[in-house]
Amino acid sequence: MKHIEKIRIITGVLLLLGLLIVPFTPPIQNYFTIPNKIVTFQNQFPLNVPSLGKAVQVHASVNDNQEAINASSFDFSEPGEQQLVYTVAGVPIKKVDVSVLKDVKVIPGGQSIGVQLQTLGVLVVGHHLVNGENGQMSPGEEAEIKVGDVIMEIDGKKIEEMKDVKPIVEEAGKASKPLEVKVKRGKETFTTELKPVKDKKENEYRIGLYIRDSAAGIGTMTFFEPKSKKYGALGHVISDMDTKKPIEIHDGTIVRSSVTSIQKGNNGTPGEKQAKFSIKENRIGTITKNSPFGIFGKLDQSIENGKYDQPMPIALSHEVKEGPAKILTVIDDEKVEEFDVEIVSSVPQKSPATKGMVIQITDQKLLEATGGIVQGMSGSPIIQNGKVIGAVTHVFVNDPTSGYGVHIEWMLQDAGVDIYKKEDKKAS
Fold it and tell me: Band of the pLDDT at 89, cuts 50, 70, 90?
């Protein structure tokens, strides 16, 4: 009995040791790193997946046909849905769905651009008091129009520019009749009544509102799709400087811009590119969208950066690796240069989200010129392993050498370049 009990104890100890050791063996560790689904592009191979050792075979299922393939390298040349199957002695132990997307290539930017946005309606950026017969007051504030609201119509007439407002206000004031104002606040639209007041000093009718119909600034081109000429730039939304709210645009223009000087960034104070441009000259494209991922539209014609002027593949968020990369940007005149950066971290994202990467400037020349990431550098394309992976977006205020980047797939989506489109099936 004692002998049998001893064998049981030894067997139990060995099993316990096995349970403790097995999870730390390479094949088991690799098993847990194998994803349930892999999304990749046509002609961007070989596709590397974890190996589980010589005892485990991997099969590729293509059009319901299976064949054994090298366990670490696969070559799916056609777009579509495929599957990898890990087997031991013919028994499946793991299945991985593989979605092969049609190849997408873009031309990276890096050029400094001037930006002008025309707002949708006129934006209310403040209130002011009017010196009327009954004392000081703001008719706009009395009508409960708030900073950040957009005036869309007055008395049924569309308002597109500031100059559209004054004649309507003057006419209503002289007729002593209130104005019916259509206002957009966020996603809601409402109508309010506003009565102009005659300013005793200016002898003109006023509504007590500061308004704006356009915004301008500089940024960096990220990419354009060579066939459609659709582009993306900046990598973040353009907000009004006073209201801090995203600008809803009616239309807009991008032009060539020349960097004249740079104010270096320091801890607590972000730096800034100083640039000159003319909206009337050197136009290169339109702006049709202002989103959390940048500005988007269509180029009038192809543009060059002198570094990477041929179409390049893109990387999805899960393909971005920590480690060295490059950015393209301008620090002098219109010359696009290549600089070293480090991808500190990258988050695989299944749905659109900003701040997908943390990057750090490591290039000594760029650090000496700018101190790190500065305003106007937003949109600078990030390139890693021969692929466009995203764009520089925001600087860390307390560490100007580092900042956030956005993944390229979300910029492409907002640009109207559908990377997930399905292949058209041929009629049978």
Answer: confident
- Catalytic-residue membership of 199: no
Catalytic residue among 378, 380, 407, 414: 378
**Residue 23 amino acid letter:** P
Hunting for tokens 């075979």 — which residue is that? 57
* DSSP-derived secondary structure for 45-83: -PBP-----TT-EEEEEETTEEEEE-TT-B---S-EEEE
pLDDT at 287: 95
Residue 86 · residue 93 · CB < 8 Å: yes
From CA 336, how far away is CA 221, in angstroms rounded?
A: 11
Q: Are 215 and 237 in contact (CB under 8 A)?
A: no
Pick the residue with more confidence: 261 or 133?
A: 261
Catalytic residue chosen out of the listed positions 258, 363, 394, 399: 363
Helices (DSSP H) in 88-247: which residue ranges?
A: 139-142, 165-174
**Residue where the block lists tokens 């090298």:** 70
Residue-wise pLDDT for 209-257, tens only, equals: 999 988 888 999 999 999 999 999 999 999 888 888 888 888 899 999 9
Nearest in space to 100 (alpha carbons), one of 42, 178, 150, 29: 42
Helix (H) or strand (E) holding 393: strand 387-396
Closest CA to 291 of 252, 255, 247: 247
Determine whether 261 is an active site residue: no
Q: Which of 59, 138, 236, 380 is catalytic?
A: 236
Separation of CA 30 from chain center? 33
Handedness of CA 412, 417, 421, 423 (dihedral sign): negative
Beta strands 112-127 and 271-276 are: unpaired
Calpha distance 180→184 (Å, rounded): 13
